[in-house]
Amino acid sequence: MTSTALFPGLLGDDIWRQLPDVVQAMHGAAPLLRAKGLANVTGADHFPARCLRRLLGLPSPGPQQALVLTIERRGTREVWTRRFTSRRMQSVLGRRSGSPLLYERLRLATLGFALQRDGDAIDWQLRSVHVLGVPLPRALRGKVLSRSGFRDGRYHFSVAVQLPLLGELIGYQGWLESLPHGH
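and the corresponding structure tokens:
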């Protein structure tokens, strides 16, 4: 039986069960998850990149930023609220009927990812970008490298977004540990 939770449903039960417990806990079916950790945030410092980060609600660059993540789940829809030292970033993750992709909506943009297991991690492979509902051609999409997995006894994540002409819009990597309920 395939899970109705977002990540297990997209990856399939066999692949899901092969992932480490800490990854399953972070991407599982619990209706509410809170985690805290640290992230190093990078990004181009020029004006267009700063403006686009602000428009999309992305954090400002800075080392060793405290990070608190809250994930609220209802079936196959998840609201991720990340509170970096420099800014609050919220996105909505979900799936669409008949599509094998995970969709992440971040204000004006919706990104479609194919999820694949790579060892102890989930590799998020960018397949589509829509801005205000309009699909962007591949040449304008840029590159998004995203990975979430288990390393050094913790849940680790790494995201890097490169855009044509702008360079590095944002990169953030770090770790998270789940908090007990009520914290």
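(Above: one complete record from the training split.) The chain has five helices and eleven strands.
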